[in-house]
Specification:
The complex is a heterodimer.
Chain A (H helix, E strand, L loop, with lengths): L22 H5 L5 H16 L3 H21 L4 H21 L8 H22 L6 H6 L7 H20 L3 H11 L5 H8 L3 H26 L2
Helix pairs in contact in A: 2-3, 3-4, 3-5, 4-5, 7-10, 8-9
Chain B lengths: L2 H6 L2 H7 L4 H11 L3 H42 L2 H81 L7 E4 L14 E3 L6 E7 L7 E8 L4 E8 L6 E7 L6 E10 L6 E11 L3
Parallel strand pairs in B: 1-3, 2-8
Antiparallel strand pairs in B: 3-6, 4-5, 4-7, 7-8
Classes of the chains: A mainly alpha, B alpha/beta.
Chain lengths: ~220, ~280
Amino acid sequence: MVALLGKSPERAFIPVRPVRGATSAMRTDAGFEPGEAQVATDLVRRIAAGDAAAEAALVERYSRGLLYLLRRQGVSPELADDLHQETFRIVLERLRRRALDDPAGLAGFLRGTAHNLAVAEHRKTARRRTDANPEGLEHAVHAGPGQLQTVLLDEEANIVRRLIGELPTARDQQLLMRFYVAEEEKETICSDLGLDSLHFNRVLFRARNRFKELLERFQAGASP
Amino acid sequence: MNHADVEEQQIVDRYVRGTLPAEEAARFEEHYLSCPECLDRLDLAESMKRGFQRAAGQDVARVTAARQLAVVAWLARLGRSRQAAVLAMALLVAVLLPWGLAVRRIAERDRELATTRAALEQERSTASSRGTAEAERLRSELQASQRDLAREREQLAQSRQPQGNVPILFLNTERGGASAGGPTVRLRLPSSPGWIVLALEIDPPHQPSYQVVLRDAGGREVWRGGGLRIDEREALSLTLPSSLLAPGDYTLAVEGLAPGRQPVAAGRFAFRVLPAV
């Protein structure tokens, strides 16, 4: 499933509502972890005390990240949804029984639980029968992208072409192609093209902003 | 971890590409779980990567298709005979090129094989000649050893046989120092190797045992023996192989040995050995 900027066609973007004014600490570039620790400690304490609103806040705060994490673990979108629910069930039951020894490590606890569930699911799949059913194979159809997804993928490619066309120099074009298509390391590209790290970061930053702008314009035009 | 580091170190892009070290990836995962900003960046990075790769793939496919179409169009413009000629050429290239390459490869292999064979042959012949010389040397050494062994066996056999004409030398102690004209007692070496008996007359007082040192004219010790006892004729007897003595003057120094005492000089005997006739 193709998701553009976190908004898949089926899943609406869930705006994150900060818990007890933790936003300012999270949004600063100079270190948000103390804020995260405070928020997590507060949530853990309240859930252990039986506060249902804190449970909802926990789900709201970590839901999108957890779903992304599970998809990164290589599970299918449908299974990721199930494991996402299961992770919250396990974590909330545990927090209701007893608070964490290190409440600030709530994110780590969530991540670990999701990771373990994904690994267990992979193992379960690997244990399943692998012998082929010839009749079933005859009817098997490759699950390629749907029409909408194909349109979205093509649009991403078109935006990239437009983006490359707008780049001021051939060297910047080469930089992006090598970074995104050939997946070469930054150091190698800089060394080959005689660039410094600052220039590299600047090209990438501008390209990313322009790509985002074009993509948002496309999404705005596509939406009714 | 802060957003400046995330930007500076391309953590988002590296995470999406899967090149972030595991420990760093775990820290970033714990961070982005509750960070919508990083999640937006992740979505954008994935979208960009996908877009670039799809665009590149489409471009490659387009170029390939265009080339194929160009070839087909060019073929269509040709007349029938030319089309046939082009197809024949293509077939020839398709068949002859791999065949030519295979023939070339086989020829190279043959050359390598011939070179290896020649080197092997040369090595074998060198090793063979080296081996022959070594065998020859060992054979001659063996023959020499066999000759020595035979001679020593013969000597041993002779020594075990009863022997007649054994030279016996009766020696008296030199008194008043060595004579000016050299030793008066003379011994002529036998023509073939054998034994020589020396009888040394010892003056009393006698000691329980004696030791003898034989020296040549230069004072070099030729032989030394101990444990000799005086016989009823108040003499010590020695049997020496004639091979021990070369023509020249010799002295025999005799010392008496008694337990707990220093050796005592018991006599000095001189004799001259003459060459065999």
